[in-house]
C-alpha cells in the first residue's frame, strides 16, 4: 500500500511532508506535491504533518479523489528533462486556481491530533502572521 496526495495540496504545497519523508519519495510539481508509489514504504511519516489533510493511505482515499492514485503514479512516468521539478499532471494543471482560504491554512502547521483545538479559519489567534 502507498500514500497518496490529493487535491487539498493543490496551490498550497506546504512541504512539511518533504522534510518528514525518510525515503525522499515526495516530489514537487508546479502546483502540488506527488508521492512516488514505487518508492513509498508506507511509513506514515508524511500524513500527520500535512496541515491541509491532503495525504491519505491508498485504502482510505476518499472516493471523490480516488483518481489521485493514478495522478500520483502517472506523474512519475513523465520524464524530467534536467532532473528538476516536473510540470504537473494534466489533471492538476487543468484545475482552476484553488481557493485563497487554503493559503491562510498553510501559514502555520497543525498536526491532526491538534486539529480539534485549532481554529484553521483564524490562524492569527495562534500567533501566525496576519495577511
Which structural category do the helix and sheet elements fall into?
alpha+beta
Largest sheet: 2 strands, antiparallel
Instruction: Order the strands across the largest sheet as they lie in space.
Output: 1-4
Which regions contain 5 or more consecutive residues with pLDDT less than 50? 106-112
Instruction: Specify the helix fraction band.
Output: 10-25%
Q: Give the DSSP E fraction (strand runs of 2 or more residues).
A: 5-15%
Describe this structure in words.
The chain has 131 residues and is α+β, with helices and mostly antiparallel strands. It is 17% helix and 9% strand. The longest helix is centred in the middle third of the chain and has 8 residues, at 68-75. Residues 106-112 have low confidence and may be disordered.
Give a brief description:
The protein is an alpha+beta fold. The chain has helices at 16-20, 68-75, 90-93, 101-105, and strands spanning 3-5, 26-28, 33-35, 55-57. Strands 1-4 form a two-stranded antiparallel ribbon. Strands 2-3 form a two-stranded antiparallel sheet.
Jot down its keywords.
two-stranded antiparallel sheet, alpha+beta, 131 residues, two-stranded antiparallel ribbon, 4 helices
Write the layout of secondary structure elements.
Blueprint: E1 3-5, H1 16-20, E2 26-28, E3 33-35, E4 55-57, H2 68-75, H3 90-93, H4 101-105
Antiparallel strand pairs: 1-4, 2-3
Amino acid at each position: 500500500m502507498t500514500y497518496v496526495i490529493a487535491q487539498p495540496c493543490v496551490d498550497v504545497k506546504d512541504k512539511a511532508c518533504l522534510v518528514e519523508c525518510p525515503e525522499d519519495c515526495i516530489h514537487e510539481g508546479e502546483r502540488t506535491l506527488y508521492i512516488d508509489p514505487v518508492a513509498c514504504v508506507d511509513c506514515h511519516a508524511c500524513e500527520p504533518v500535512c496541515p491541509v489533510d491532503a495525504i491519505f493511505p491508498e485504502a482510505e482515499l476518499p472516493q471523490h479523489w480516488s483518481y489521485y492514485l493514478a495522478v500520483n503514479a502517472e506523474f512519475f512516468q513523465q520524464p524530467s528533462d534536467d532532473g528538476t521539478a516536473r510540470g504537473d499532471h494534466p489533471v492538476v494543471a487543468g484545475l482552476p486556481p484553488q481557493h485563497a482560504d487554503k493559503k491562510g491554512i498553510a501559514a502555520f502547521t497543525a498536526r491532526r491530533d491538534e486539529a480539534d483545538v485549532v481554529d484553521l479559519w483564524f490562524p492569527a489567534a495562534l500567533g501566525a502572521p496576519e495577511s
